[in-house]
Amino acid sequence: MAKVRTPIGARIRRKRITAGLSQVALARALGISASYLNLIENNKRDIGGKLLLRIGERLGIDLEHLSGESEARTIAAIGELMAEPVMTGIEIGPAAIRDLVARFPEAATALARLHRAHADATVEIEVLRHRLKSDPLLSQLLHEILNRIAGIKSGAEILADIPDLTEAERARFIATINSEARDLVPATRNLVDYFDQAAARQRHVSPIREVDEAIIAHNNHFPALEQAAQDLRREVAVGGRLEEAALAAALEARFGIACRMLPASGVPPEDGGDALWFAETMARPARLFRMLRTYAAQAASSGLAGTAAPFDLSTDEAKALARRALSSYVAGAMMMPYDDFLSLAEERRYDVELLADLAGVSFEQAAHRLVTLRRKGHEGVPFGFLRTDRSGRLTKRFPLPGLTIPGFGHGCLLWPIYDAFAAGGVVRQVSVFPGGGRFLLLARAVSKQAASFREKPLVFSVMLACDIVHADRTVYGDGIDLGARPVEVGPSCAPCPRLNCSHRQEIPA
């Protein structure tokens, strides 16, 4: 499958012409040949990370706008739409989709919105279909309504088709029809009331997924929480450093929450109340993170509520999960302040293991913080994030345009996230997804320390992904031939269009 490049070349050309620059002049300023710039403007060449930055700086284009993220999302959505069974027989290839987005962006956006509406409606239909099969009350109501409609239909057909009925017979059938019609009204009203009540108490398919989607919709970056993290760090930091003893004292003095250690043989209670329990084998970054999360939940309560308000979550469980997730966001921002951590990441070229060591955090904490560096005008490399357990079940995710990640279940067996469990360090791989997006994927297994010899360690694998155009900004792009044939991967087996993949484990949808 040909690579679907986001149509940013035309945007560069328009900006260049508006700025009154010739191709030769801009190419000279960028340090490339005019012929290479011509290929870029005609969407026939990918743009490396540093070159993309130089073009943005020279033409005064915002990097987010220049990178074509919105177009990439639209291209991916239309690609998913064309894979729907209802589109069978309609051949629109990747190049045609790209041209549609480039030439008719409003029409492309309309198609993408229709696809999202179709997907939402499909989920709702599946929920209703399951309810029709499994809910005895609904089945009873429908059965009653259908019986009464059948009675009305039968009486009406007799009146229409049999002309020689006596007046007494005709009156009897009319009375029966009237009776069934009168009884149909309350039965139908009961059905409507049932659906109204069911809708009021209907849960989202998954509260976790509902919260994930809300955070993803906000690009996993919350300026108000970044500011709150700065303010809270100043409250508890000693000489600019976060110390456990000082933080524990602040928790107890301000909120009456004591930090207590639990022997390895004990079972720690859940966080809450007047104590925060730690297993004695818990690593320092994990202890510090839990203390900061608890402090943020108490000290920044109103800010957390204000940030979560636009999420419009449907259940109390989802709201509680959102509060915990946003408290964790503040804790991570307190441990790794935005400006300092971004400067460190750029200086060390996003070496996650090195960043984790220098910041005194875990690999997963450092990787997750990199994903949140999305401040407009001061962004880091845009990373996608994924975490899986040993069974392959996805437990955390943050996608990117063109990086198709399922919302739940398992991922593609060819992702390096699964290879990392058997590797001793970071595994990296250049991959191409069905939509044509090329990404540098890097993964590493991380272990949650066991409380004792009798407990089996909890092991996850964490994967970061960035568009190949940013690979040269990271240490993980070194020594890899970025122009070589990439590994062809997919989202997961069922929706993957690579029908001849030897690793397929499910029948394609």
Describe this structure in words.
The protein is of the alpha/beta class and 509 residues long. It folds into 4 domains: 9-116, Orthogonal Bundle (434 Repressor (Amino-terminal Domain)); 135-201; 210-335, no CATH class; 351-509, no CATH class. The protein contains 20 helices and 8 strands. It has helices spanning 9-18, 23-30, 34-41, 49-59, 63-66, 69-82, 94-103, 105-134, 136-161, 167-201, 207-217, 223-236, 244-255, 284-299, 301-308, 316-335, 338-347, 352-359, 363-371, 416-419; strands spanning 258-262, 275-279, 383-389, 394-398, 427-432, 438-448, 458-467, 487-488. It has a 6-stranded mixed sheet. A two-stranded parallel sheet has the order 1-2. Strand 5 and strand 6 (438-448) form a beta hairpin. Helix 11 (207-217) packs across helix 16. It starts with 8 loop residues before the first helix and ends in a 21-residue tail after the last strand. Residues 1-5 have low confidence and may be disordered.
Task: Give me a quick take on this structure.
The chain has 509 residues and is an alpha/beta fold. It is built from 20 helices and 8 strands.
